[in-house]
Amino acid sequence: MNKSSADKLSFFFMGLENRFLENRDIFLEVEIRFKAGLKTFKGHGVLNEADLISYNFNGVTKLLSFHNMLEDIRKEALKYDELVLTYKERGMKLLISANRKGVTMNTEELKYDAGEEKKDTSTLLSRDYLIKATEASSLLKAIGIMSKDGKVKNDKIRKYNQIDHYVELLEKNFESMKRQGTLTIMDVGCGKSYLSFVLNYYLTEVKKIKCHFIGIDISPQVIETSREIQKELGYRNMEFHAMDVKDFKDDRKIDVVLSLHACDTATDMALAFGVYKEADFIVAVPCCHKEMLKTYSYKPFEGILKHGILKARLADTLTDGLRGLMLEEHGYEVSIVEYISPLETPKNLMIRAYRTGTPNEASRENADQLIRSLSIYPAFRYYLDQYTYGQSGLDDLL
Whole-model pTM? Predict the structure, then answer.
């Protein structure tokens, strides 16, 4: 390769280095092919835990900064007729080709081996999936939906359908939030974080939306499991903390708060946290509703509420209805939709709240009236008051 092409290569490498610095969290690897006549010499670089590139060429491995690796490659290129560099990040790859005629660059979507696409997953998979088994096989294997041989497990088809429908219900909301910068998404009560991993894949690799996930759960065991899956997938744009969300102290702007099947008032903790942090988008799929069932009463309904099953169902409806009203009260546009079929689980509602920033006085008055009539103090309001006034200030109010 002549010096003119090597100089042009330096210019392309400057742009590549800037891309790496901007997208470090989704970087996968660099593959190098040098050609001299009919012979090909290969190199390979990956990011290690020390944040250095482990670069192997001709049987020798060096630990280098990304800049120094590119400089090493540029100098080596002068000894060969042609260079092809493939830079891979999640969802795409960039190819730089250089020879004595010049330097070119192309970008392509990162595709997976065609061999996996030929494998039959199941005759029961009838959805037009957003999380496609052929393209998201590494993800689906890591979270236990797919077997090692590339087939969706029969006993996981229902779970696969649920996570895909979850993404489908949220897709338009995330699309409307697409912008310059990175979306910070917090999963409160994340458990093993399966849905955060799925959303991470979809936003990063399909929609090309930059995102960073924070998983919070009080159980150290499930947080450790999440970290193991994260390491297996190489999803560096995630962090996990074993703690109560009330103890999370961070000045970062939280754009999205998620809560899936958090038991009883844990859902209210997540909603209150989202409102307090002025999250642009809040999503909750509540689980059990125990709090109001134990405390509420309404004299005109005494004849109905003597039946335990009716009292429980009404408590569920009132709890989620009040959550919606209080979100509106604090400046959110709210929709409550069916998440999955009630034949699969009775806990099948999804609360979606999109921040408008305009408090709704009518919703506040409606919520206050219901709270007085039912003789309750909803956990959502209690936790939000804690954030607003602090525990000592809340004691004074009470």
Answer: 0.87
